[in-house]
Write a structure and sequence with these properties.
Layout lengths: L2 E2 L11 E2 L28 E5 L3 E7 L8 E6 L3 E8 L18 E8 L10 E5 L2 E7 L16
Antiparallel strand pairs: 1-2, 3-4, 4-9, 5-6, 6-7, 8-9
């Protein structure tokens, strides 16, 4: 057992005991190394609401450009939202004190209902929020036909 200590005074961090130190896999996330490409950005938060006219998806993707995001409709009415945020380049003379911003790839899939017009999907990105609108087919209400009763 050991305590991982830093020689930098930071009032917001704590001394952390690493219970996995010495195991054959590496769980030490030092400030000078980064995680692999599929690190912590895996779970992009996405809201899905249904209005009378459409299904609307909103994803918070702060700091991402629209060129880094891909919206597709796959077979069987599956909406696929994916992208990749590049990590900041580490310069040799840089000394990182904290690395909290996530980077890596994300991928989310949603099975759309039968009434989705997948050929009319629209997507827009504004202020780090991706909005995907999937129009719905109009539901035709069955017309009631009056039947005359004989007798």
């Amino acid at each position: 057992m050991s305590i991982v200590r830093s020689n930098i005074f930071d009032p917001f961090s704590l001394d952390v005991w690493d219970p996995f130190q010495g195991f054959p896999f590496n769980t030490n996330r030092s400030l000078t190394t980064f995680d692999n490409d599929t690190s912590t950005f895996v779970n992009a938060r996405i809201d899905w609401k249904e209005t009378p006219e459409a299904h609307v998806f909103k994803a918070d993707l702060p700091g991402m450009k629209k060129e880094e995001v891909k919206v597709e409709v796959e077979e069987c009415n599956v909406l696929k939202i994916s992208g990749q945020r590049s990590r900041e380049k580490e310069e040799k003379n840089d000394k990182w004190h904290r690395v909290e911003r996530s980077s890596g790839q994300f991928l989310r899939r949603f099975r759309l209902p039968e009434n989705a017009k997948v050929d009319q999907v629209k997507a827009a990105m504004e202020n780090g929020v991706l909005t995907v609108t999937v129009p719905k087919e109009e539901v035709k209400k069955p017309e009631a036909k009056a039947i005359e009763i004989s007798g």
